[in-house]
Amino acid sequence: MNAWHQTTPSRSYCTDLSHHNGLRFVGEHSLSVADNGAIGKNGRAGFTLLEILVAIIILSMVLTTVYGAYTGTFHIIEQTKYSDDVYGMARTALTRMTEDLASLCPYGGIYSFVAKSAESGKRDFTDLTFLSSAHLDFKDQRVSGTASISYTVTEGSDNTGAVLTRTDVLYRGDDESDPDAAGGFILCKYLHSLTYTFYNDMGESFETWDSNSDTHKNRAPAVISISLNFVNPDDSEDPFAFMTKVYLPMAGASNAAATE
């Protein structure tokens, strides 16, 4: 009977905690006392403060990169949209001005063409008034005749630029005008500058022109150069520039005949 009385390790021995040479035994696995800090109250491992800080830094770097790409994409979209708007307005404005000037006509055999400097805010612009057969009546398109067309510039803020307005009034001689006409229509905005250069039939250039003066008495330019610049939000020193020239052969021929 004593031979069969050999004691064997009990199951409870395997699950009890015991200390041996600075180690703790949990079942058949051992953990050092130093690693005990990663054990939570429920016996599960957690994150250390250093690990949390590293994770926060990595997350911040990722978010910064994503935000930079996000804002950069929207900036490119805004730039593209603004460029499209500028090119569209430049095309519309120059086309309209070319048609109006190409339809320049005299009234009673006399040309009326005045281009004079006008102060508008911080910058100087040139206001242009002339007689043309390119009358536009948005109320009644059947109405036609000689019109007094004016291009005036109104200064806006430094960021938005100036506004170019077109006024079209039926001309009835002398100071008479259409009583129903008032104000004008905005041709384009975001203007940085608008300059004209006028050439007579001899090729001489002028910055202003007045058909009522002795120099250009009852005459109109033979060639008009138009330089249209728009505000560039990203670089104020490099505006969007557009340029065209309008040739007025009839006006030049009339000027030459008047000179002879």
Structure write-up:
The chain has helices at about 10-15, 50-100, 250-260, and strands at about 20, 25, 30, 115-120, 125-130, 145-155, 160-170, 185-200, 205, 210, 225-230, 240-245. By secondary structure, it is an alpha+beta fold. The protein folds into two domains: about 5-40, no CATH class; about 85-260, no CATH class. The longest helix has about 55 residues, at about 50-100. The protein is elongated and about 105 Å long.
Task: Write a concise keyword list for the protein shown above.
alpha+beta; elongated; three-stranded antiparallel sheet; 260 residues; 3 helices
Indicate the mean pLDDT.
Answer: 77
How many separate domains make up the residues? 2
Q: Helices and strands: which structural class? A: alpha+beta
Strand content: 25-35%
Percent helix, as a range, is 25-40%
Radius of gyration based on Cα positions: 42 Å
Secondary-structure element string = HEEEHEEEEEEEEEH
The main β sheet shows up as: 9 strands, antiparallel
Distance between the termini: 153 Å
Inertia-based shape: elongated
Strand count: 12
Low-confidence stretches: 1-39
Number of alpha- plus pi-helical segments = 3
Short description:
The protein has helices at residues 11-15, 49-102, 249-259; strands spanning 19-20, 23-26, 29-32, 113-120, 123-132, 147-154, 162-170, 185-199, 205-206, 209-210, 223-230, 240-247. The protein has 260 residues and is of the alpha+beta class. Strands 4, 5, 6, 7, 8, 9, 10, 11 and 12 form a 9-stranded antiparallel β-sheet that branches. Strands 1-2-3 form a 3-stranded antiparallel β-sheet, with no helix packed on it.
